């Protein structure tokens, strides 16, 4: 899904401020939000948590801080999980099915791949500036459940391979860009170039 949360590579938002020696939490309430997030994420998936944040109205998203966005998502997930109705209950904690040997993949190191443009109402973890771009597989990064499926269901499914794909900054952003961009992308988001 395209939304205001996908700002990577977009113009007009000014520089990204970088705070030297930035603390983990600027205010005590942010630490409490961190703890609450652990409670609600323990009952669902990290992808469902991200998806909840992405449901914020654009005007609210742009005027909210990082932990304010988290709190907004926590409120919705806590309601969804019944945590506001009484004693803690809800579904059993969800854990990704990881471990063991990696599954056989469709791609190998050095392969040229194109990023698919599968944008639906489901959760999409592929930044829009990478869609339809060609890159090179650098390595198999890990195996992880498909984020679109776990965002929609709140339950981790079977893992798929995740590849680190390298892209030329020049190709993505034009001639002045002299850097390389790496992105970890699921096999279901890649196709042969």
Task: Report on this structure.
By secondary structure, this protein is of the alpha+beta class. It folds into two domains: 1-94, Cyclin A, domain 1 (Orthogonal Bundle), CATH 1.10.472; 112-192, Roll (SH3 type barrels), CATH 2.30.30.50. Helix content is 28%, strand content 19%. It is built from six helices and five strands. It has a five-stranded antiparallel beta sheet. Helix 1 runs parallel beside helix 4 and helix 2 packs across helix 5. The radius of gyration is 18 Å and the shape is globular. The two termini are 23 Å apart. The mean pLDDT is 85.
Strand percentage lies at 15-25%
Low-confidence runs (pLDDT<50, min 5 residues)? none
Radius of gyration: 18 Å
Oligomeric description of these chains: single chain
The number of E-state strands comes to 5
Q: What's the mean pLDDT score?
A: 85
Features of the shown structure:
193 residues; alpha+beta; Cyclin A, domain 1; SH3 type barrels; 2 domains; 5-stranded antiparallel sheet; globular
């Amino acid at each position: 899904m395209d939304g205001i949360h996908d700002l990577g590579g977009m113009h007009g938002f000014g520089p990204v401020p970088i705070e030297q020696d930035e603390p983990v939490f600027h205010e005590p309430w942010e630490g409490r939000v961190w703890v609450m997030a652990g409670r609600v994420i323990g009952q669902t998936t990290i992808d469902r948590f991200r998806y909840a944040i992405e449901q914020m109205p654009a005007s609210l998203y742009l005027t909210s801080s990082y932990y304010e966005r988290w709190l907004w998502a926590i409120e919705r997930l806590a309601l969804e999980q019944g945590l506001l109705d009484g004693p803690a209950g809800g579904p059993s904690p969800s854990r990704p099915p990881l471990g063991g040997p990696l599954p056989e993949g469709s791609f190998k190191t050095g392969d040229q791949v194109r990023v698919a443009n599968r944008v639906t109402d489901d959760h999409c973890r592929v930044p829009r500036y990478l869609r339809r771009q060609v890159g090179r597989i650098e390595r198999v990064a890990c195996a992880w459940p498909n984020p679109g499926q776990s965002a929609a269901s709140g339950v981790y499914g079977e893992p798929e391979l995740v590849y680190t794909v390298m892209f030329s900054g020049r190709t993505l952003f034009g001639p002045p860009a002299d850097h390389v961009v790496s992105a970890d992308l699921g096999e279901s988001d890649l196709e042969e170039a």
